[in-house]
């Protein structure tokens, strides 16, 4: 059809020009092609007559300049190629035609459905495009998308959730879009714990209210938090979140919590029950999880080497970082809903108190390295305060004790991991 149209136009041109035998006319090109981006091409014209151009396509602009014709094409936003005809009139007659072709958008990917394991990793998608101005949109924070010359590389973060998840990536060039769907498998319960590395260091543990000039002064300090003394810790890892009920149920097959919900912290668990959980976790994972020591807990709650010396974990105002008596509405809350501290840890102040590994003992003034607490005792330490306690009991230095076989509706735990 295109050849027939071209033949008819050429025939009309010859007939039109034959009416003016004294007029000479020629053009440098009778057909031009643009890529998808358009831009401009120039055609030379030679004639002794008065000439002009006629066209109807709205995606080209024709400029007449002395002995030149400038044809400017818009960007083609669509997949279909397109064609336009420019007629060149000389003394009122059609003496020449220019066929203008433009390529359509080429945007192809080798696959639109990507399956990822719970461990994550990099997935590469081959992309073919006839333009480099395509855009990539992805609002899923667990997908990091980068483009290379002929591919899209998708870095899929590890899925700590015990549920499958799906993400979406939209590639757009003009009016053409391609949508990629990334499906990632759920983690098994023993791989579902998000840990953060804590750089060891030396800090002052405890609090005192006797001398505002000395270290760790706090007018609200209890005697059990003194004397303040220096502690040095090695590197370790600690859980970003308190252990949830979903994780406990997946491991133990029961839910002892009073306030129930999958993403609520597990509570009403004794120190002894937590040891059973950790034993099973280590068998399944092959790692060496444990409860944090009291010193590790306080160092992490204070922000470790990044500490800003706040009274609560990351903030001087408890409501920013913790659920406690005044804002909890008499219940635990889903983990991670308040602001994290300097290390990125959530709920260190409030929500539930957290078991530590140590037997209780009174502090001394001695400097200690990696303290583990006494070898035996009657009461186990727990830290952090809870949804049911006043703000004074959610301070970073606050110490609390319970018998190891006791549970409480506001007592849970988070994990630690040795290097």
Write structural notes for this entry:
By secondary structure, this protein is mainly beta. Helix content is 12%, strand content 34%. It contains five helices and 27 strands. It has helices at residues 2-18, 245-252, 271-285, 294-301, 318-321; strands spanning 25-27, 31-34, 39-47, 51-54, 60-65, 68-73, 82-90, 93-102, 107-109, 113-116, 121-129, 135-137, 143-147, 151-156, 165-173, 176-184, 195-198, 201-205, 229-233, 236-239, 289-290, 353-359, 368-369, 380-383, 399-402, 411-412, 416-418. The chain has a four-stranded antiparallel β-sheet, with no helix packed on it. A four-stranded mixed β-sheet has the order 2-8-7-4, with helices on one face. It has a four-stranded antiparallel β-sheet with strand order 9-11-14-13, with no helix packed on it. The radius of gyration is 36 Å and the shape is elongated. The N and C termini lie far apart (74 Å). The model is unreliable at 1-16 (pLDDT under 50).
In short:
By secondary structure, this protein is mainly β. The protein contains five helices and 27 strands.
Helix/strand-derived class?
Answer: mainly beta
Residue ranges: pLDDT <50 for 5 or more in a row?
1-16
Global mean pLDDT: 94
Question: How large a portion of the residues is in β-strands, by DSSP E?
Answer: 25-35%
Strand order of the largest sheet: 1-3-6-5
Rg computed from alpha carbons, rounded to a whole number of angstroms: 36 Å
**In DSSP terms, counting alpha (H) and pi (I) runs of 4 or more, how many helices?**
5
- Total number of beta strands: 27
- The N- and C-terminal alpha carbons lie at a distance of 74 Å
Anisotropy-based shape: elongated
Share in helix: 10-25%
Describe the largest sheet. 4 strands, antiparallel
